[in-house]
Write a structure and sequence with these properties.
417 residues, 20 helices, transmembrane helix, Transmembrane_161A/B, transmembrane
């Protein structure tokens, strides 16, 4: 309740979004539109106008003016409120998780469920909802038939890949689907027998096929919602050349990091690390979590470079705009500034969803340490041996999707860009 009250007071705060995404960035508009606006408010901000004209004009190009970007300038832009809400809520959920995890470390004998899982689940649902809403808007118009067909084909492909991966997952990665599902069925059978419902149900058949089909379908829906955002990220990453060599290396590392993290889940690698006493199983799980957290931090740290690359596109396409009327050129240039909140969401939401999945995996790990001998329906459903393969599958799938779809986008840019 205390956390809910605190969040309610800070839900609409712009500081975090401004700091992480917009502070220090600039967007382009046509000079004529800026001059008309400046003339209209000349009496109010004469000093600031002079400062902006000196600092913001693009050298060698009289038609474009660069203006500073801030949350105040984006109040009426589409999805601005969604960006503020999802960023504030996600980071607040992470803060609650840290407090709850610290409590579990200080009081390891406590049998209480880690309540931060509720906040993290809420964050994950919000993240998936917003990215799905953006993707649906991209294909809702009747003239977007090609995009709609592409997304349907991608969804079918994601489903086939997921069900194939689930079928052979125990041989490829450290998931243990069969063991987890069997343990869940046994626990559920014991619970029903203890409560007098054993004669109503029979669990002689222990195939996890329905679980795999459900997870694959869910993954296909989420991955298809992330498909176009990930392609856009790969395009912006490919064109983000206006930065230092060291920062360029950091961008390369951030792009390939999901693949490196997935390697930690491969069964040959995990077995080698554990059997040769390089790491214990608990240390390996912690290494995976820390790797995801470190990657998320780097993705957020490089967000401004990617967003500025998007905002610089009018400068790169000005030759094409010069062939059109001034009104059409003005609309096309202004589009990039008006679309920056959507671009920010498409950049950050797959990352935050991956972080939420990793946090939930760690929450259920804590719950496993707090299990009691007395069985309840909650302990049966939240059994760690069942939840671990589910959330490991989700984490591996999200990381793999971000890397391989990004790789497809890079090949597309090199071939057709």
């Amino acid at each position: 309740m205390i956390a809910a009250v605190i969040f309610n007071k800070t839900a609409q705060c712009h500081f975090l979004c401004d700091l992480l995404f917009f502070k220090g960035l600039g967007y382009f508009v046509l000079e004529s539109s800026v001059l008309s606006e400046l003339n209209a408010c000349e009496s109010e901000n004469k000093r600031r106008r002079k400062k902006e004209k000196d600092f913001l004009r693009i050298g060698g190009n009289d038609r474009l003016v660069k203006l500073p970007l801030s949350c105040d300038a984006l109040q009426r832009v589409p999805f601005f409120d969604s960006l503020i809400l999802v960023v504030n809520y996600s980071f607040f959920a992470f803060f609650v998780f840290l407090i709850s995890d610290a409590f579990c470390l200080l009081f390891p004998e406590s049998k209480a469920v880690n309540t931060s899982a509720i906040w993290v689940v809420g964050a994950l649902i919000l993240q998936i909802h917003i990215i799905t809403k953006i993707s649906l808007q991209k294909i809702a118009a009747s003239e977007l038939l090609t995009e709609r067909n592409t997304l349907l084909c991608a969804s079918a492909l994601f489903f086939l890949l997921a069900i194939t991966f689930c079928a052979f997952s125990d041989q490829i990665v450290d998931l243990n689907f069969d063991r987890g599902y069997s343990q869940f069925v046994v626990s559920l059978d014991h619970f029903l027998l203890a409560n007098g419902f054993g004669h109503l149900f029979s669990f002689d058949f222990h195939s996890p096929l329905m679980l795999m089909l459900s997870l694959s379908l869910l993954y296909a829906l989420v991955a298809s919602a992330m498909f176009f955002p990930l392609l856009q990220f790969s395009s912006l990453y490919f064109h983000s050349v206006e930065c230092s060599v060291s920062f360029r290396f950091l961008l390369h590392f951030v792009f390939f990091a999901p693949f490196l993290i997935v390697l930690l889940f491969l069964r040959p690698i995990s077995d080698h690390l554990i059997e040769n006493d390089f790491l214990s199983f608990a240390q390996l799980r912690m290494l995976r979590f820390v790797s995801v957290l470190f990657w998320v931090i780097l993705r957020i740290a490089t967000a401004k470079v990617i967003l500025q690359t998007f905002l610089n596109r009018p400068k790169m396409q000005m030759t094409d705009y010069g062939k059109e009327s001034k009104e059409n050129s003005q609309k096309k240039v202004a589009f990039f500034a008006s679309y920056v909140c959507v671009t920010s969401l498409q950049y950050i939401l797959p990352v935050l969803a991956t972080l939420s999945t990793a946090l939930l995996l760690k929450c259920f790990d804590r719950f496993a340490n707090g299990e009691t001998e007395h069985q309840t329906i909650q302990s049966v459903i939240l059994n760690y041996k069942l939840q671990e393969p589910i959330w490991n599958f989700s984490l591996i799938s999200l990381l793999s999707t971000q890397f391989f779809v990004g790789l497809i986008g890079i090949f597309g840019e090199r071939s057709f860009g």
